[in-house]
Design a protein that fits this description.
With about 110 residues, the protein is α+β, with helices and mostly antiparallel strands. The chain contains 3 helices and 4 strands, in the order αβββαβα. The N and C termini lie far apart (about 25 Å). The protein binds 2 RNA strands through β3, α2 and α3.
Amino acid sequence: MQSRRLKKNSQFRLVYSEGKREAGTKVVIYFLKHESDSVVPGFVASKKIGKACQRNRAKRHMREIFTRLKDRFNDTNLWIVFVASFRPDECTFHEILADVESSLGRAGLISTNG
RNA sequence: AGAGGAGACGGGGUGAUCGCGGCGCGCAAGCGCUCGAGGAAAGUCCGGGCUCCAGAGGGCAGGGUGCUGGGUAACGCCCAGUGGGGGUAACCCCAAGGAAAGUGCCACAGAAAAUACACCGCCUCCGGUUUCGGAGGUAAGGGUGAAAAGGCGAGGUAAGAGCUCACCAGUACCGCCGGCGACGGCGGUAGCUUGGUAAACCCCACCCGGAGAAAGACCAAAUAGGAGAGAAGAAGCGGCCCGCUUCGCACAACUCUCGGGUAGGUCGCUAGAGGCUGCCGGCAACGUCAGCCCGAGACAAAUGAUCACCGCCCGCAAGGGUACAGAACCCGGCUUACAAGUCUCCUUUACCG
RNA sequence: UGGGGCGUCGUCAAGCGGCAAGACACGGGACUUUGGAUCCUGGAUCGGAGGUUCGAAUCCUCCCGCCCCAA
C-alpha cells in the first residue's frame, strides 16, 4: 500500500501560499499544519535542475530521505513539500540528507537528536 | 609500423541488508532467491497496428514522394543495381521525372542573359585625305561575367561564318545485341546545335479520409431537474461539394450553443508484424518451416540507500574515474547524444625478409 | 499527446535570392580648460551543420535553444 502523497495542483498551491518556508542550500521545504492522521509529503523537481533522468533521481533521493525521517516528526498533522534545488549528479545522497535534516531541525519539526 | 575506409559488439559483474511497484498464495497480518528501464526508453521527423467517427465511397482543394528492380503490414526506411560527382585506393556522397506545355527570374559587369546582338575590332563602298565621318557586311579575335549560341583543324571568302567537309561532344530518331528494368554496347540517319533555374510558380506519375490512449468502453458521484437556439428539415464528417446513414415532419424527444459540475474506480494494458537457435530459398534486404522461451506495466507515475569482493581506465603512489541517459498503448524505421574499449575485413605508404 | 511561433552587433530591431538598414549602448577622434550635448568614425562568419543555386540571413533537410496554445 502506497503511503499518502500530495498529488493535486490545488494542494501544492495551498501549501505554497498559506504555509511556511524553510530554505536549505539543496532543498527548499514548505510546510502547513493540516488535519491528517500522518505527515503527507509532496516532492517537486522542476525542469530547472535537469532533464527527466535527473528529476527522477532527485525525487527518489528526497523520498528516501523522507522515509528515513518520518518517524521523528513531532506533529503528524502536517502537509510538507520538498522542492529540489540541487543537481543530482553534482552532490551525494548524504549531503542532501544532512541539509534536509538541519532545515527540519531549524523549523522545529523534528527532534534534533536522532 | 604509419595514415585511412567499411562493418559489428557489449554498455560493468556477483552477493548481502533496509525500502518501493507488480504478480502469486492467504480472510488478514504476512509470506515467496517471482519479476522489475534502453540502445537509444530521447527528438517526435516519417510509416503502420489498435480504437472511435459510417463499412472509409466519388470529385475538387491541400499535402507528400520522385532513376530501376526487389523486400515489407507500410514507409520519406532497407537491400541489390543504373547514372552522375569526389578520392591514388579501400570506399563515400547525390530530392537523380519534365526547361522544343506555359509563365517568371538571371543582380553587378557586359554589345548582348534569349524573338539574340555589335563596344573595341575585321572587311567593302562613298566623302575626305597623316589621325576622320557616313552607309553596309561580318562575328574569327579582344574585353565582361557564374554562365556568351557546339570544340578543333582544313577548305572557302572582300572579311568572315556549320557556309562546306573530316574527327570529337551533344540532341532526336531508327536498327541490332545484352539486361525483368533503369541503362549499357555497336552501327546508321537527320538537322547542324534548341543557355541556366523546377529545394521559382507549374506540368506529369504515384500515394494520402479525420482524429488520437485524456483514443474508446463500463460503473459510481456531482451540478440541474439551468438558459437560449433549430426546422421541415436537423445532425452525423473534421476545408468544400456530392453521396450515404440516423432521427423527425410540428407536445415531446433529439441536436447545437452558452453557463456550471466532475475528472474517482475498473477495463483498454501488454503474447507481440515478439525474441533466440537451426534447416532451406535468395547476391542481399528478407521469407517459409521446425524447436525453445516469456523479458516492466506504473498513473504527481515503481529501479533508491548502504556495504563487501572482483573487473576496466588514469596515476610512481595515496587516490580518482566508470558515458549518454529513465518505459507511459504497441511495433518498423530515421535522426541526435554516448566514457573507456574490443573484434573482423579492406586500401595505401614506408621498411625488413 | 497534438499544434503554432521565434532566434540578425551588448539591447531593441528592418531586410524575405545579389555590398546586412536604423535607433540606443560601447570603443576611437574632433570641439571644450574638463565633462555633458553635438558632429565624424569603427565593430555582425544573420542559433548550428549539411544541401540546392553562379550566388543563401532569405529556399530545402536535420539538429540546438526559447516561448505560446488546446485537451
